[in-house]
Design goal:
Blueprint lengths: L1 H8 L17 E4 L2 E5 H5 L4 H12 L11
Antiparallel strand pairs: 1-2
């Protein structure tokens, strides 16, 4: 997921950090906002909806190619 986000958004993200946490924790945050939580949302997200959520917040005009279809 990290590589997918870096490939898509490059320097626009600033950084992608992986932070060790307790067993079963998987969360995606952007500027303090929780975009996805394995516990809250059930399971691991697919890259497409996460990329769309991030794009909508950092650069709404940006096209995502096949991820927009």
């Amino acid at each position: 997921m990290s590589q997918e986000l870096l490939t898509t958004f490059g320097e626009a993200l600033g950084e992608v950090a992986i932070v060790p946490a307790g067993s079963g924790v998987f969360e995606i945050h952007l500027d303090g906002e929780l975009l996805h939580s394995r516990k809250r949302d059930g399971g691991f997200p697919e890259p497409k909806p996460i990329k769309q959520l991030i794009r909508d917040r950092i650069d709404p005009e940006r096209g995502l190619g096949h991820s927009d279809r």
